[in-house]
Amino acid sequence: MSKLLRIGVLASGGGTNLQAIIDRCQDGHLAAEIAVVITNNPGAGALDRAAKANIPTLCINHRDFSHREDFDNAVVSALQKAEVDLVVLAGFMRIITQTFIDAFPDRVINIHPALLPAFPGLHVQQQALDYGARFSGCTVHFVDGGVDTGPIIIQAVVPILPDDSADSLSARILEQEHCIYPQAIQLIAEDRVRVAGRQVVITPACPAEATALVNPATSLQ
Ligand code: GRF
Hints:
Elements: E1 5-10, H1 16-26, E2 32-39, H2 45-52, E3 57-59, H3 68-81, E4 86-89, H4 98-103, E5 108-112, H5 124-131, E6 135-142, E7 152-159, H6 166-189, E8 193-196, E9 199-202
Parallel strand pairs: 1-2, 1-4, 2-3, 4-5
Antiparallel strand pairs: 5-6, 6-7, 8-9
5-O-phosphono-beta-D-ribofuranosylamine binds at residues 11, 13-17, 90-91, 111-113, 138, 174, 177.
């Protein structure tokens, strides 16, 4: 068996994406092992999920640091000590600094609950609703110096329905997040992913969905 990709997961909240990754590692669909789960939030549900799966956890509380850089250095040291190949941000509610990115070049990925480049930042499900968009979705991307601006690895499109609330839309998007995040990590584990400027090249290429999505549905196609 070839070597498993060692990943470090950073999470601040409930950790459903972490759970999806744990589940895929356990059922053999993901050739990775989670070396460590790090949180900045002592109350993060992600900690319980990791502990249940016997994954080492670490809480590095950002409130204990007066400078962002010092917090990032502590997190980077912990990730290096755990010898991770890939850093996976899964609902990590801190913006990471360039020092962090430089320590893991093209080795930090994030999931965002919108179809980037539309709606970067926070509360993006509500933003998509308020804007009147017909589709939203989720995006797995490499992390660069900006907020949700790095090269895109994979996206899933989710329709916005007339009666949607931010909660119902978030739930529909989250379901897709749990599919595409493990998928992106598996592609990296297979060493098929390269960053070329703004583009992410996957070799051999994955088949793409060839059918257009229309919302509201049309009978004119
Ligand atoms: C997800 O919606 C993710 O896209 C965003 O934060 C949320 C984390 O959810 N970055 P969970 O903690 O994985 O349940």
